[in-house]
Amino acid sequence: MQRYLLNPPMKALTWAGFSRGQVLVETQGRRSGKRRRNVVGMKTAGDIGWVVAEQGRHAGWVRNIEAHPSVRVRIGRRWCPARAEIVADDDPYARLDAFERRSHAAAVRRFGTELTTVRFDFEK
Q1: Cys bridge to 28: 4, 5, 68, 93, which one at CB 3.0-4.6 A?
Q2: Radius of gyration of the chain (CA)
Q3: What pLDDT is recorded for position 84?
C-alpha cells in the first residue's frame, strides 16, 4: 500500500524533469494495449539507456516490453522513442555499479528479487 501512495508524486516529479537519474518508461499493455507509464532508474550513455529491473521478468513493465519492445522514454522534459530489449547475459550487479549512484544501487539490491538488465536503444 505504501508503494502505491509514493508512486504518483514520483511520477509527477519525473514528468517535470526534477528527479535526477529517474525516467518515465511508457510501454504498451501486453493484453489491454493501453499506455502504461513507470518510473525507473536509468543510466544513459549516448544513444543507449540501461535499467536494472528489480523484479526482473515478473515486473509488469518488463512483460509489456517482451510483448511490445517499442517504447517511449521521458528523459528530462522530452519523450524519446526507443526499442527495449532484455539482456539475459548481462551482470545486473556490475551494471548497477556503473550507474555510480550508491543509494539507487543499494535500494535495488535490497528490494530486488530477480535483478534483470534492460537495454534501451534510442531512435534518432
Answers
A1: 68
A2: 13
A3: 98
SS (H, E, C) 10-75: HHHHHHCCCCCCEEEEEEECCCCCCEEEEEEECEEECCEEEEEECCHHHCHHHHHHHHCCEEEEEE
Mean pLDDT, to the nearest integer, of 22-42?
A: 93
In this prediction, residue 70 has a pLDDT band, given cuts at 50, 70 and 90, of very high
Burial 21-36 (b: 16+ CB within 10 A, else e): ebbbbbbbeeeeeeee
Q: How far apart are the first and last CA of the chain?
A: 39
Rounded Cα gap, residues 51 and 82, in angstroms: 13
CA atoms 39, 41, 46, 47: torsion sign: negative
